[in-house]
Amino acid sequence: MIRLGRVPAACAAAFLISNIGPAIGQKHEPNAGPAVRVLLLSGQNNHDWKATTPKLRVILEETGRFKVDVSETPGLLTASFLEPYDVILSNWNSFGLGPDAENWPEEAKRAYFDFVHRGKGHVVVHAGSASFPDWEEYGRLTLATWKAGQTSHGPRHKFSVRIDKADHPVTAELEPFEIEDELWNRPGLSKGATVLASSYSAPDKEGTGQWEPAALAGRFDRGRCFTLLLGHDVEAMKNPGYQALLRRGVEWAATGRVVEKANPAGQPAWRWESQAGKSLALIGPGGILWQFRYDQTLDTVYFHPLSTADGKTLTWDIPPDHIWHHGLWFSWKFINKVNYWEIDPKTGRPEGRTTWNNVKVIAREDFSAGVGMDLAYCPAAESDPVLTEKRTIEITQPDAERGYSMDWTSVFTAVRAIVLDRTPLPDEPGGQSWGGYSGLSVRFAKDVAERQVTTSDGPIIGFQEDRYRGEHTAMDYSGLFDGRPAGIAFCDHPDNPRSPTPWYAIRGAVMSFFTPAVICYGPMTLKPGQSMTLRYRVFIHPGRWDAGRLRAEYQRFAGKPPQANH
221, 192 in Cβ contact below 8 A? Predict the structure, then answer.
């Protein structure tokens, strides 16, 4: 490795380039076009650049798609020297090294910026963006910078990387992945930067409780810029997901397109499984991730199982103690004193019947899904409904954490005057200890252990007779499923009636259950023709969520700006 001292720029060209060993790999595809010429900047960094620079070169050159040269003196660049290259990849920084470390000649600065301005590419990895805090143009190039007094990071740990822009060439069809690395909090973002991938910054890892950018793209005049904030060290750079992002980001910055096929080796595949008129399921590496059941022979439509990507089932269908419980489902308790919730032992059906038609189930190529349907609520002894519902459910594709969410919207319209009611609360006439439940509900799997219930205001400590009731904007119910933590969280919507909603949760010897019970504290009436809308966001996730995460997700669902961290 040749490293130049501070020599005149005119003398630099003969010494600027260092090749680390022979060319690597011969996998270049004939139809991919000529190899992408990459100038990898190194020689100075507050990280171990002597180890990471060779690793970056190997990641690129082993594909045969890239030809990489290394410079350890980027401050001596000239326009003529840069001319043959398609993209600059910077693993160089001046962070904490004093003002002399940033003392680039004006000629080098002009050459550097003109290179990208004219339509070439610029890529930085991890701390490669932590330089020149007073250069506004350099900040535009790097898209995300270390901002003194604002940016931070916690300890190195394992976290997930989700894909935020599935329609960008760099991240199109890429799968989310897990990585053990250093995660930046609150980097300074340049105007026009697009976040392609992000990671949740956990408070217990000195994080913000927010999703922080991991990969970004943007334009600098005619040039293309890509920033990968991951890659603290060689171990992190060994991650297949990291390597896929790096290669695709460098190629896009250099050429404006990506030849490499998506889905790096080792990432799980997903597929749909459907039965016409009966069910739709998303199948993953651990089996059924979720299944929606709408067979007309059922008493209600519902989701079961809801599972984690590694196959841990979180829900219970038709448990023997309450055979009318069905994974994730919606049911009113009483409509005009008719019971729609429980099974009538005389008939084996509910006294109030729920029917559905005009069902539209859409399974998309990106493994998101949509459900639309019309429902009607009618006493068994009558032919005309007393209440109708238009229900839509949007289900996301699995995210970086291998979790997924549902946006559930129900618009109810009264056909005649109705009263929506529930079993009275203990302090009401005829009240019962179990009173108050109704609405969108979850029954958890039988063997869930170490259960925790957390709201947007904090964890719930005290349960009275195994039950909790209280008003909050969001709630998470989690536990250990075959030894692994996972849970289901709901966010209320601020436009819902009686928001923040009353919650009803059970943590009993056998029963694990919760619901955003809008009528928990009192019945609700609707006049003929009057409508009411309920909206919820449901998250099925690995791990346990704290109050900060719940508040952040509620703010996002409510369309409000995130609250400041204190």
Answer: no
CB 283 within 8 A of CB 294: no
pLDDT tens string 384-404: 999 999 999 999 998 766 789
CA distance 490 to 514: 10
Contact between residue 246 and residue 56 where contact means Cβ atoms under 8 Å apart: yes
Quote the CA–CA distance of 273 and 536 in Å, as a whole number. Answer: 26
Check which CATH number belongs to the domain holding 236 and give it: 3.40.50.880
Structure confidence at residue 131 (pLDDT): 76
Whether the predicted model's global pTM rises above the 0.85 cut: no
| CATH number, domain with residue 403 | 2.70.98
Burial label, 50 (beta-carbon count in 10 A; 0-12, 13-18, 19+) = exposed
Q: Span 485-489, mean pLDDT?
A: 96
**Same domain, yes or no: 230 and 367:** no
If one counts the domains in the chain, the total is: 2
Strands (E), 176-322: 177-181, 184-185, 188-189, 194-200, 211-220, 223-228, 271-275, 279-284, 287-293, 302-306
Kindly report, residue by residue over 345-356, the tens digit of the pLDDT: 889 999 999 999
- Rounded distance, CA 27 to CA 107, Å? 38
Containing structural domain, residue 133: 16-148+189-196+212-255
Average pLDDT of the segment spanning 406-432: 95
Tokens standing for residue 129: 């963006």
Cβ atoms of 88 and 16 closer than 8 Å: no
CB atoms within 10 A of CB 26: 8
